[in-house]
Write a structure and sequence with these properties.
The chain has about 375 residues and is an alpha/beta fold. The protein folds into two domains: about 25-45 and about 290-384, Alpha-Beta Complex (Aspartate Aminotransferase, domain 1), CATH 3.90.1150; about 55-290, Aspartate Aminotransferase, domain 2, CATH 3.40.640.10. It has helices at about 5-15, 55-70, 85-95, 110-120, 135-145, 155-165, 190-195, 220-225, 250-260, 265, 275-290, 290-310, 330-340, 370-384, and strands at about 35, 40-45, 100-105, 125-130, 145-150, 170-175, 200-205, 230-235, 245-250, 320-325, 345, 350, 360-365. The strands form three sheets. Strands 3-9-8-7-6-4-5 form a seven-stranded mixed beta sheet, sandwiched between helices. A three-stranded mixed beta sheet has the order 1-2-11. The chain starts with a helix and ends with a helix.
Length: about 375
């Protein structure tokens, strides 16, 4: 056995001894509120399918029609021959949805964050990043080689302290809109004011807000009533929109710059044609079926209130992402196993995804869930 393989085996054993070894379960059904694994049925609280749009008839029809017309592959990068008209049509619709001048579609949210941040910031620039930002944001900041300053989670005062020290001509503030592990929302009004004051731009990762947050589901910028040239926003299609891919919404000049300078866009095959077709259909469903968003809000409030009333440590305010913070690896693993034994599927979240001492179960609600489903979870965790 080579020294390399021995090294890998040793590292995996270390993870296992620390209770941090991860594995992949094979799901035998689609990612819905009820799933099947190895012939066993589970109530699913792990899905980002927040509005239960995965498999929606109107979206499925649009994607199937796209396959029939344009095939199962784009066949090339968009700068070669992969830029079918469907992409530009979808980008125009997505830009209107997010109330921005233009949009650019990417294969995934991770790729979009890494690509956009590393293109728009460089060695001469300063990036200011929230302490609990998503891993894709962190990796994009590192790849940019800009000077990175991390401000305390949702702490606008600390952010201003760091901005005051910056001598850079280009300052980039990056934050999640809705934070993926805590479900709380960035203080975008205060961040926007600081961006104006210190001549900075803001990039908001609205992956977990798009389709859900705001009166029309347009995201956190709609929630705060923000529409400024110096605030750009990323949305993903594989969560609440029930499709796939991602899109970055920005001024037209920024889009043109990304097309010419971003390696993650230039050197990758365009997403399959079904993606832009599905995204446009999803936007239509958001308008036609607002009850999905309303039900999700109702369920989120109900679950959060139940956890708080039982004395559990969770987020300060309710959202469709609700953490049950255990603060210990063994406790969170034990409770996850108990829930799965009782037919409820939820995954333990441990470091490095969350800081040590904040280990948790992360419950993701969808509009397919019911209050009875939530009561079932509460009964299990209170009887432990």
């Amino acid at each position: 056995m080579s020294s390399f393989v021995l090294f890998i085996k040793d590292e995996l054993q270390k993870l296992e001894s620390e209770g941090l070894l991860r594995s992949i379960d094979g799901i035998e059904t689609g990612c819905f509120s009820h799933i099947s694994i190895n012939g066993c049925n589970f109530l699913n609280f792990c899905s980002n399918n927040y509005l239960a749009l995965n498999g929606h008839p109107l979206i499925a029809k649009a994607m199937k029609n796209a396959i029939d017309r344009w095939g199962t592959s784009s066949g090339a990068s968009r700068l070669i021959v992969g830029n079918i008209n469907l992409f530009e049509e979808a980008e125009e619709r997505l830009a209107r949805f997010k109330n921005t001048e233009s949009a650019l579609i990417f294969p995934s949210g991770y790729q979009a964050n890494v690509t956009v941040i590393s293109t728009l910031a460089s060695e001469e620039d300063d990036i200011f990043s929230d302490q609990l930002n998503h891993a894709s944001i962190i990796d994009g900041c590192r790849l940019s080689k800009a000077k990175l300053s991390v401000y305390r989670h949702r702490d606008a005062n600390h952010l201003e302290t760091l901005l005051k020290k910056s001598k850079s001509k280009k300052k980039v503030i990056v934050t999640d809109g809705v934070f993926s592990m805590d479900g709380d929302i960035a203080p975008l009004k205060e961040i926007s004011e600081l961006a104006d004051k210190y001549d900075a731009v803001v990039i908001v990762d609205d992956a977990h807000a798009t389709g859900v947050v705001g009166e029309n589901g347009r995201g956190t910028l709609e929630l705060f009533g923000l529409n400024k040239e110096n605030i750009m926003v990323l949305g993903t299609g594989g969560k609440a929109l029930g499709v796939g891919g991602a899109f970055f919404c920005c001024p037209a000049v920024v889009k043109q710059y990304l097309i010419n300078k971003s390696r993650g866009f230039i050197y990758t095959t365009a997403p399959v044609p079904a993606i832009p077709a599905g995204l446009m259909a999803s936007l239509e469903v958001l308008k036609l079926e607002p009850y999905r968003r309303q039900k999700l809000i109702e369920l989120s409030n109900y679950f959060h209130k139940k956890l708080k009333s039982e004395g559990f440590l969770t987020s300060k305010s309710p959202s469709h992402i609700i953490p049950l913070i255990m603060g210990d690896n063994e406790r969170v693993l034990s409770l996850a196993k108990l829930l799965q034994k009782k037919g409820v599927y939820v995954k333990p979240i441990r470091r490095p995804t969350v800081p040590k001492g904040t280990e948790r179960l992360r419950f993701s609600l969808t509009s397919e869930h019911t209050k009875e489903d939530i009561d079932r979870v509460i009964d299990i965790i209170t009887s432990k």
